[in-house]
Amino acid sequence: MPGLSHGVKKRKSVSYAKWGYFFIAPFFLVFAVFSLVPLLSTFYNSFFENYMVGLLHIGPKFVGLENYKTIFLNGDMPKYMGNTVILWLMCFIPQVVFSLLLAAWFTNASLRIKGQGFFKTVIYLPNLIMATAFSMLFYAMFSDSGPVNSILMSMGMENPYRFLANIGSTRGLIALMNFLMWFGNTTILLMAAMLGVDPGLFEAAEIDGATSSQIFFKITLPLIKPILTYVFITSMIGGLQMFDVPQILTNGNGNPSRSSMTLVMYLNKHLFSKNYGLGGAVSVILFFLCAALSALVYRSLTGRMERGQA
Questions:
Q1: Best exposed site among 54, 233, 276, 299 by fewest CB in 10 Å?
Q2: Pfam families recorded for this chain (predicted)?
């Protein structure tokens, strides 16, 4: 009745939206203090001349884009960028191929592989080892008087092979260490993606007479592209930020002939020498490089997915 409806008090609706902001506020606070403020400070310092000469502090003096001109004109930046890309590709390509192979094996119900839990744990264990420990281990193993050369000489080699004095072997060791540390993590991610695919699609394909390779390339790979995109982008960012393994293995010099000097090692040289202006400029360039490449890869892969679905 109209009279009763006016007499009934409206209940206050409880809004829980504010609690969401309350719970995510600590993240944004920590992010602002430890990430956003240093990021803005890096941008700011990149436009200033600010370095140490012995005990004398020069600057800060505003110089505009002079730091960026210095970096690009001295010719080192393209060389170190090329080194970084080569080392990343030497690690990433075999890592993805091997991880896809292992993930396909472990998720194939027809193979019935025993002890899957044990193997998953073993392949992930290297990811838990610190890069510094891994680098020191490889440095000791492949040194001129290390156990690897001892084995080679016992097999008839006259002189020890200088692994860390040759460009190919040094890059190969860096790529091998990064591969061993990260292929387990990539395998777990790809396994999770493959287990999320509807098994009915595989059964239907087998009934239609599709081979294992056709099922993998026509069904599995297209359906796990979102995870592959994530793996590609995160691996690329990690590759561009490669530092600890080549830094320790080459004692921070990027030898031989600076062929193992990466972008972040180059940045560390400026920070170690207290040249904060050039260090900030290198950081800003690296930031925009990562952002541009990530956006390009994301748009490229997701664009193909959308065209394929259309």
A1: 54
A2: BPD_transp_1
> In the chain, what are the domains?
77-309 (1.10.3720.10)
146: phi > 0 → left, psi -120 to 50 → alpha, else beta; which? beta
Which residues are CB-contacts of 256 (< 8 A; sequence separation ≥ 6)?
A: 164, 165, 166, 167, 170
Report d(CA 97, CA 94) in Å as an integer: 5
End-to-end CA distance of the chain: 54
Q: How far apart are CA 214 and CA 97, in angstroms?
A: 17
* Two tokens, residue 88: 């990343």
CA distance linking residue 15 with residue 252, whole number of Å: 56
| Strand partners for 48 | 62
At 118-145, the pLDDT tens digits run 888 888 888 888 888 888 889 899 988 8
